[in-house]
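The instructor's notes for this session suggest beginning with a concrete chain rather than abstract definitions. Hand out the sequence below and ask the class to guess, before any prediction is shown, which regions might be ordered.
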Amino acid sequence: MVNVFKNYPGMGLAVIAGFLAINARAVDFVHDVMPIIKTHCAECHTGAQKKGGLAMNTRAELLAGGENGSVVIPGDAAKSLFIQLTRSEDDTEYMPPKGSRVPADKIVILEKWINAGMPWESGITLGASAWEPPLQPRDVVLPAAVDGRAHPVDRILDADLSRRNHPVPPPASDATFLRRAYLDVIGLPPSPEQLNAFGRDPDRDKREKVIDALLANDVAYADHWLTAWNDLLRNDYTGTGFITGGRKQITGWLYDALKANKPYDQFVRELIAPTPVSAGFIDGIKWRGEVNASQTRDIQFAQNISQVFLGINMKCASCHDSFIDRWTLSEAYNLAAIYADKPLELNRCDKPTGVMATPKWIFPELGDVDPKAPKAERLKQLADLMTHPDNGRFTRTVVNRIWHRLMGRGIVHPVDAMHTKPWNEDLLDFLAQQFADDGYDLRKFIRLVMTSEAYQSESVILAREPGEDYVYTGPIAKRMTAEQLIDAIWQITDTSPAKAEAKVNRSVSAPEADVKAPGLKPVPITAKWLWHEGEGGKKSQLRRSFVLNKVPDTVRMMATCDNGFVMKVNGQEVARSREWTKPVVLNMASYLKAGKNLIEVDAEMWGGACGFICQIQWDDDVLITDKQWLARPPKGEWAAAKELHVHGAGPWKSPLDANAAYTSPTLAEGLPYVRRW
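After discussion, reveal the predicted structure:
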């Protein structure tokens, strides 16, 4: 065994204990390695300094070596010149050449780090030569289109590929595109029938039409994208603090915002200067007991708004001046003070400094908050500064996040380290400016990316996770998310939960012109709750035939079932629901015909009470659920239905509303419910 202590006589047991502790765990680059490099190497080899041709600002620069070649060999510290010079006993050749030598226990850390392959967290740089992102937006002049590929995204990417003499990726097959589009927009794979129909469709614009149809599905879109925003906004349904009232959900507000496609600038303003239903984001978590100064709600506020909306990591700066980027302790605390209810004292490494924070925005070029204003006004001012038209970092951050989800890797990567130089500045700046010009419309931005030939290309399967040397060659193959995987299983096996975890409104609003049934005056609800005669049973089949001399323009149908139902009219499915508290309301005229018509219902209960109720109105006629309906248990004999209760009685109260707006022929209730994670 090499005696690592021989050059350091008098080393105490404390150092030996430290050596043993380091050997017992993995090396943490940020907390173990970076401080050593900053103390002993930074003066000559970071920032603009490059003594001997060696720069250590990034892992790539360190691996590139200096004037005499390689200095580190990942996985082999003993053969790395970096370690050999650090250990050298030659008074004419050792590192560092001035100042104190690197202590033995620190060399052990460096050796262990190199032997582990030199793990270096993405986005972390050591010197001032690190790229500083511009604040202002930038207009981009688009390159000329090549081979008719006129989409702006393709024009930028094709020019980049051409400069590198790399071919344009070939288009994905129809089946691959359709699966990708479905999973990216609504989180579910298409059905075999949808895949086959799409493959047979000769329409040249079919891909664009599918994208538009998927993005127009408000409920399915919100169901899927809720999970991404839950993660980003830390909107956990359960977790530490929640059970004691220390955390508030914003699920209802968030779901409604996604379903309504709320403009992103307004979305963010309502999170930073919130209403009661959206305040859970900035309020963070109230931990039990005493917590580190960097984990108070005030500091969480500074960390969360910086990371989510600007891609800035304020966690290091919440404890001390950051050594991974330029942010300082005072900047983190000044930002936190905008939210604080009382004067906020700076704590460095959890120790009070006696210095008080001043409510202040981190980009004064855009303006500032009034430190003397009340908290609510300070938050409103901050919301306006965050979404300021000249805050290009705000728009770059969100378009980069969405590009990552659609294309497999951020233009800046990782997406929470927006101080990292993008692999294509023109692309990032164009997308950010276009997003702002389009009114901060998230769905319109998703459409912009998805309608490019780049998005619709064959995916690239990488042998390893790309590093700083990443270059674009096509969309990167993505793993299904946990939510997509379980949704697909539920879809294939028809086993989605019967009840939603989250209290969200999944109904589909009708177009404004169709909210009221023209020419129909609301009539009292006289329908009865029905089931079949005899022993209850969990399933009941019901049917009713009726004759029309002619088909009216409007036939208003309201129905619900405890717990769920599927309705067919003349053999066509017209409605399905699995939430009895949200009745289906629709105009079923298009499913009817002159002469005899047949309504068929498969009703099901999963526990508790059971019952189906329906009222249909046209012209001066009303058809209700009553004993004239036939009912039976599955495979049983048809008989007159059993009237359980009148509307308003029984355990259900009055779910039908004669003045209710139309929902939709298919309520999206066939989709899996919103999940808890």
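Then share the key points. Residues 222-386 form one domain. The chain has four domains: 13-115, 131-215+395-495, 222-386, 516-652.
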